[in-house]
Structure formats: structure tokens, C-alpha cells
Amino acid sequence: MKNKVIGTLLILLYVFLVLVPVIILLAGPKFSGRPALLDLSVSLAFVGLAIMALQFILSARIKSTHKPFGTDLVYFFHRQTGIAAFLLVFSHPILLFILDSRNLRLLNLFSANSSARVQIGIIAVLLLIGVVWMAEYRKKLRIPYWFWKLWHGIIASVMIPLALYHIFTGGNYIDLPWKKALWIIYSIFFTLTVLYTRVIYPLRLIKNPYKIKQIKQERGGVWTITMEPVNHAIFKYMPGQFAWITAWKTPFSDSEHPFTIASSSERNDAIEMSIKSLGKFTSKIQTLKPGDKVFVDGPYGYYSFDRYPETDRLIFISGGIGVTPIMSMLRSMADRGDKRPVTLFYSNQEWDTLTFREEIEALQKQINMKVIFTIERPPQNWQGEKGYLNSTILNKYLPPEWKSNGTEVFLCGPAPMMNAVEKVLLASGFEENQIHTERFALV
Predict the structure, then answer these.
(1) 178-215 burial, b for 16+ CB within 10 Å, e for fewer?
(2) Model pLDDT for residues 105-136, shown as the tens digit of each residue
(3) Domains of the chain, earliest start first
(4) Which of these, 68, 75, 61, lies nearest to 302 by C-alpha position?
């Protein structure tokens, strides 16, 4: 209930901060000779710029703003509002061209008709196009994550001051002192946010480092790294949450990567992450050595059964490395002595590459759990389920009462697998609010 109230207040505050520039713009003396289309053009630009300034808060990983919604939802909102801001700002020059086609001459940055204010405004729009283009096509163009993140931040940090300069020299739209004061406040807000994310927060992480205690190879090309704090306590986290890790560099390098915490939340001596070798960073994980220093920023995420303490039954569905948040929850249940009934559906391509296979089988003796392995390419004489998880398999192992209120389903795995299983769950009688997914689409 508390999170819902805080979330509602944050949403209202966000809407207010986005709309207040337009309210201020329309307040005060009216200019009778000003075309309505011009007012609309400037209003849309003001809203777009306000959204862009707030983007720095959304991406700053401030825990109090992420907690009511979950980091994955906040980042999804960040991406969608970034696109909205682009469309709003881009509509500003388009409407000016519609208003008077002679304004097209202003696009020539070297023209005598192009003032410094106009030139800087055009450069700001071009930078905005670059930011959105890189964000939308990063994966298709195979732009490395660290390269994208570095330049995404740099370009955005340059673009906002240029846009603010364009506004401050914008004539009668902010000619009154109290109108200027609004954009001065936004400028201070933007500056403080950048200072916090780029300087203050990295310094806090540097003061609380972790060191590698152990590197362990698991089945399926997965490496488990155990990290213990250096002269400080481990942050408290819920099973299923994730953290950002920086290795080989400092937090100032902007090269952190998000991974689920796989260890039990009851541990207070160390935390574990189990990482599959899938890319440039993850393929180097096994080269870490005991004693190496790393920096861990967490916890984040909304994906945890601790948010549903009253539930009677738990269903875990995982595919491949998506088992890591499930392992955190299972290990926590074992350490807590939690005896609620659990059904685990674990899908994988091959039996021999099934990560944590032996530990999962051992956990059946510690908690009230039934495990169903589904193997796409099973070995000879395999007696378990084959192929993909489907409604036939689900209905075979889940009694009707497990589909009623009192059951929560936690699903994590490759996106195609989760999309398919979600449809199966809904068709089998589960309510949408019973199904919780961890999609990890943060960037």
C-alpha cells in the first residue's frame, strides 16, 4: 500500500513537472499578434525539453524513485518517454516551417539569416536525433553497450544545455523574470542530477568496494562469482533482485553491467552472481581472480516473491540462465525454512548443460518442491518431459486449485520463451496479476 501511494505521488509530480513550463508559457501578458501555431510549436518544445531533463532522473537509478515500480518498468518508461520527447521537440521546427516556409532557410547553419540562437537550436535537435537513433538501433548496428552508454550520456549532457540556451534567448516567451526563474530552476535541477550521477554516486561506490572470493564453473557455460564486502556491510536485498557490477575499471568508467543476484538473501557474508558467457564482458568473467576488486551497485528490481508474503503456493518457470533469480528465491526459502509448496518448471536445450541441476535436486529435500525438467534435445532413454513447455505439461502437473488466488507465478528466461509461456498460462486459467516476469530489457 505504501509503495502504491508513493508511486501515485511520483506520477503526479512527474506530470506536473512536464506541464508546468506550458502553464508558465501561457500565463502572463498575451500577445495578440502571435499566431496560434507558433504558440503550439513552442509549447510542444517546452514539454519535450522538460521530459528530456527528467530523463536524467529516470536513468539515475535513485532507489526511492525505482522502488514503487521496479527498475525494468522505469527503464521502459524512460525509453518510451525519450521517443515522445523527440517527437515533441522535432515538431517544433516542423510547425515553424508549416507556419512560414521561409523558415526553411534557417536550416543553413552558415546563412546570414541564421542567428547563434537558431544555430544552437538546430544543433540540439540534431544531437537529439543522434541520441534516439543510437538507442533504437544499437543492437541492430551491433554497437557495443559500453560505447553506446558512454556517448548516450555525453550527447544528452551536451544537448540539454544547448536547448536551454536556445530557450533563454527566446524572446517574449520567457521575457518576465518569473518565467526565466522557472528555466533557471530546471537548469539547476539538470546540473545537480548530472553531478550526482557522474560524480557523487560513483564516489560512494568506490568507498564501498567488494573483492572476489571465489570463481566457480557451473554447467552450461556459466560462472558463479562470489563477492564479499571490503570493510562494509552487504546491502539488503530481496531474493530475485539484481545489481550492477563494474569489474576491471572504476564506477566513473560507465562500464557497469546488470546481473541477477543468485545467492540467498539470508546471507550476510557475501553475494553471488551466476553469469553465462554470452558477450565480450561476460566471456571475461572467468578471468577474475580471488582478491580482485569489483564494485556492486544494488539492489534493483521488482521481481521477488517477498512482495507477495501472503501467497500460499509458488510456481517458478525458468528457461536457461533465467534460472538465476529463481535460485535466489529457492536458496532463500531453504535458509528461512519456508515450507510453502513450490512447483518448478525448468526448461533447457540439453540435460548436460542444465545449470544448477544437482543443487536443484538437492533442494527438493530441504523445501516442499516438485521439479519438472523439460529438455528440447533430451538424451537417449530420457523419461522426463520433452520439447517446449506447453499447456499439456502445465496442466499435467498443476492441480486446478493451483490456478486460483493464492498462487503466484514467477517466469524468467529468453524473451520468445516467456512470450509463449505467458500466453499458455493465461489460456490455462491464470490471471494476469498472478504472473510476474523478469525480462531484463534495461538497455
Answers:
(1) ebeebbeebbeebeebbebbbeebbeebeebbbebbeb
(2) 777 767 655 678 888 888 888 898 888 888 88
(3) 2-200 (1.20.120.1770), 210-300 (2.40.30.10), 309-437 (3.40.50.80)
(4) 68
